[in-house]
Amino acid sequence: SSHERKLNFGKSKEMCLNFIQDAMLQKQWKRAAEFLTFYAEALEKDFSREYMGPSEIIWRIGTEILCHHSHSSMKEFNSFIEQMKTLGVKRYLKVSLEHSFRLLCNGLIHEAYQNLSLAENWRFGEQNALQDKEIKLIQAYKGLLDYYSWSKQKNILLERGQDGLEDLSVEQEMHSYFRKAAVNLKEIIKTPGVWDIFVKCYVDLLEFYGDDEEARQVLSEYAYNSKFPANPNAHVYLYQFLKRHGESKKSLISGLKVLHDLVPSHELMIEFNTMLQKSSK
Predict the structure, then answer these.
(1) The organism sits in which domain of life (predicted)?
(2) CATH number belonging to domain 209-281
């Protein structure tokens, strides 16, 4: 009967997933790939009337297997991930982000940037809150890559010394990367969350162009805004910034006091203890 077929299919599917999990845990990537192929084919042959779209399981397991399989190539990975994008439209942005990470791991920075640019302009149906969040995240990673390009240009200028400072084309290109990076990095850190790498890069941009007041504001907001989760790193970044800019010992001790409450064993507590001893003399 239809009910029995559905029940048997469910059991087979679960058993197959268990075999895949077992193979992956034992790092038997070839065996895992074979079971995943069987799993995907079984889904296609499902005769139940319910529509069964490509499962997130196939995307996640397939990605993991291709990342570790000894005979897997970047070409195969790209082909697989493009299929996952077109078949699972609601997951398009997540899959695109993972695709970019994989490209970056293989040193394909330009391709990763292109992939993020395509994803940034992608729309499906009416834009909802989740899509909006995912697009902001994609833009933030684009901002990181723009920061990376800015940093490379900055190093070229610094290496050339006085000659580099007179190279207008490098300076203009660098400023273009700065503008693009700053817009996207500034946007993502407005949303409550843990954005350490984005905050550090944005502050580096601001400090380089002498906007110390904005940098201080960003770091203070990141450390003390109650909407953000408690984050020891946020207080470390603020402390390091204040120290770089010659803030008073009182301000530095005050900052480290908060860090002490969060992580009493932090390595900066040695500095904190030294400062307290000196201030009590």
Answers:
(1) Eukaryota
(2) 1.25.40
